[in-house]
Design brief:
The protein is an all-beta fold. 1% of the residues lie in helices and 46% in strands. The strands form seven sheets. The protein has a five-stranded antiparallel β-sheet, with no helix packed on it. Strands 2-27-26-25 form a four-stranded antiparallel β-sheet, with no helix packed on it. A four-stranded antiparallel β-sheet has the order 3-4-5-6, with no helix packed on it. Bound molecules: magnesium ion.
Amino acid sequence: MADVTVIDPRFNSMVLPNAALECLGENFRWLEGPVWFADHECLLFSDIPNDRVMRWTEDGITTFQSPAGFANGHARDLQGRLISCSHQHRHLRRRELDGSTTILADAYEGKRLNSPNDVMVKRDGTIWFTDPPYGINTDYEGGKQAPELPANVYRLDPDGRLSIVTGDFAGPNGLCFSPDETRLYIAETGPQFSPNAPRHISVFDVTAANTLANPRIFHRIAPGAADGITCDSAGNLWSSAGDGVHCLAPDGTLLGKILLPGTVSNLTFGGRNLSRLFMCAGQRLFALYTNVRGIPWP
Ligand code: MG
């Protein structure tokens, strides 16, 4: 059975006593960016240092895209197209229905983006993404290049206009809207080579004008840090952590943990009824059926 720690009694009904932790694949280098395609019953996810995007189905795991520009986070837009962050090319891209690629954003005011890390599509069609320098700090995850911009979080409007929604992070990483999209959670993983730097999840109110307001610290993950984060349909936030996955109530209370043998980098709900939690954990892909459901797309 899965190694589950219940910290708040509310967590008892969110996990299943008879569901096993399943390892769906291993021998990757560093997994990230899982996105569920219910129509294809598949999960796409990045194996960043191997420069490939993988595809899991019940029949196994195959390579979806390689080379992949050292892709990291993925999302689907309102038309179902794949939106991807590329470390190597320092851009946000869209895969069209004919298989071609459209660059959505690669610069802000004439300066190149750093290495887009994670991305969310809001129901109004705007695309929100983080841009820390992690992918250009090393050759391992994209290739050393000099940053030209601070580590901002951006909103891309359907008309192509790119705006900074916050610049108040050293390393903005995973991000996630609450189910009603009135809140945006952003994980701060700090400067890459400063393990003692502040690491936490911040939460903002999303205004009617699509700006962010009222920033506050939502939760400090320990051990490790929050990288990818995802909400369930009740508004609980499921966060990656150094010892697995932590589940946080909308008020920031730690409800419980799914313990994994190592750091989790990112996660998403998928599978039947969006109740299966897919977890990218270093060199392995895990899944666990839960008793909650992810947020339906779109
Ligand atoms: Mg990330």
